[in-house]
Specification:
Elements (H helix, E strand, L loop, with lengths): L28 E5 L4 H10 L5 E5 L9 H13 L7 E5 L8 H12 L5 E4 L5 H18 L6 E6 L2 H5 L1 H5 L5 E6 L1 H8 L14 E3 L13 E3 L4 H13 L3 E3 L9 H14 L4 E3 L2 H10 L4 H13 L6 E4 L2 E4 H18 L1
Parallel strand pairs: 1-2, 1-10, 2-3, 3-4, 4-5, 5-6, 6-9
Antiparallel strand pairs: 7-8, 11-12
The protein binds glyoxylic acid (GLV) and magnesium ion.
Organism: Spongisporangium articulatum
Keywords: Lyase, Magnesium, Metal-binding
Pfam family, one: HpcH_HpaI
């Protein structure tokens, strides 16, 4: 997969900036911390080296009365940032809130030199990205930054999903998209009250007249997010940017979290958000290819010789397209090992 930096054009405002060396991968987990919480800010030096991406959250989850404290906490962390192998992101408030402009100004002017990506919530169309792109260009020029800050959008409104391709293509700054299942559920008027994951009521029941003979009334919980994730992955990949699953709110249910992350991984996502340290390990495990799958991929590639034609391996047909899938597995493993 190409890195977002391959897509950079010179910025619209200020001198053309050199391409920014943002490690696009790995970003298996985007670990959220609330910068308004002094205790959490104090833990940053310990947490930062253990994650691929650390994100200071200014938006939902931060009470309206703490928005300024959160901004100040983010700046404090940015000023002391000394973990260059970890990406440093922030999630600003939504563009229709009273805080987004102040968030962007503070983040770029105060700590733009260490900030890799700005996550923009509730993006509804390319115009939202254009607005952020132009502001970033002005602020970068004002701050004298020599590398552009990238943009990550959260897909969490029906309008955003309907225009996901345009959002991905809206700016060369686009780094990726995350699914925002909680806001998306509300906006779509779904009947859930959870933050991501499945729902016990959304299931498929085997036909009592037949179907699965072993378990005639078996029920299977369905993935509420399959359609949106698949659509997001297609839009991201066709624009050379990265798709992510978003939050999983039931911190205690580590099994369901792992299942949800794995569904997203298998569908093409490169990472997910972690909201608690326990989810860091889950994301690391799920979004790193299993060594058994990597070994198998290597075996198929070797057995396929020049990569064309068809062979039988362990009773299964493999051909040119299997080789391509196996290469994805190896490339992912290699990128994570680097
Ligand atoms: C994330 O922001 C969500 O709404 O799920
Ligand atoms: Mg949200």
């Amino acid at each position: 997969m190409r890195s977002p930096k391959d897509f950079f054009r010179p910025l619209a405002v200020g001198a053309p900036a050199p391409l920014r060396e943002v490690p696009a991968n790995p970003s298996r987990m985007i670990h959220f911390f609330p910068p308004s919480n002094a205790k959490m800010v104090a833990k940053v030096p310990d947490i930062a080296p253990t994650v691929d991406v650390l994100l200071g959250n200014l938006e939902d989850g931060v009470p309206a009365t703490d928005k300024e404290a959160a901004r100040a906490g983010l700046i404090e962390v940015g000023k002391k940032w000394s973990t260059p192998d970890t990406q440093f992101w922030t999630r600003i408030n939504s563009l229709d809130s009273p805080w987004a402009l102040d968030d962007l100004q503070a983040a770029v002017l105060e700590i733009g030199d260490v900030l890799d990506v700005v996550m923009v919530p509730k993006v509804e169309g390319p115009e939202d990205i254009h607005y952020v792109d132009r502001l970033l260009a002005q602020l970068e020029a004002k701050a004298g930054l020599d590398r552009p800050i990238l943009v990550h959008a959260i897909l969490e409104t029906a309008a955003g999903v309907a225009r996901v391709e345009e959002i991905c293509a809206a700016s060369p700054r686009m780094q990726g998209l995350s699914l925002g299942p909680a806001d998306l559920a509300a906006n779509r008027r779904m009947k859930t009250t959870r933050v991501g994951g499945g729902h016990p009521g959304y299931l498929v029941r085997a036909d009592p007249e037949g179907g699965d003979l072993e378990a005639p009334r078996a029920t299977y919980q369905q993935d509420l997010w399959h359609y949106t994730i698949a659509r997001m992955v297609d839009a991201c990949v066709s624009n050379g940017i990265f798709p992510y699953y978003g939050p999983f709110g039931d911190i205690k249910d580590v099994q369901a979290c792992e299942d949800q992350f794995r569904n997203a991984f298998l569908l093409g996502c490169v990472g997910a958000w972690s909201l608690h340290p326990v989810q860091i390990g889950i994301a690391k495990k799920v979004f790193s290819p299993d060594p058994k799958d990597v070994a198998h991929a290597q075996r198929v590639i070797e057995a396929m010789g020049d990569g064309t034609g068809a062979i039988m391996l362990d009773g299964k047909m493999e051909d040119d397209a299997s080789v391509k899938q196996c290469r994805v597995m190896l490339e992912t493993a290699k990128a994570l090992a680097e």
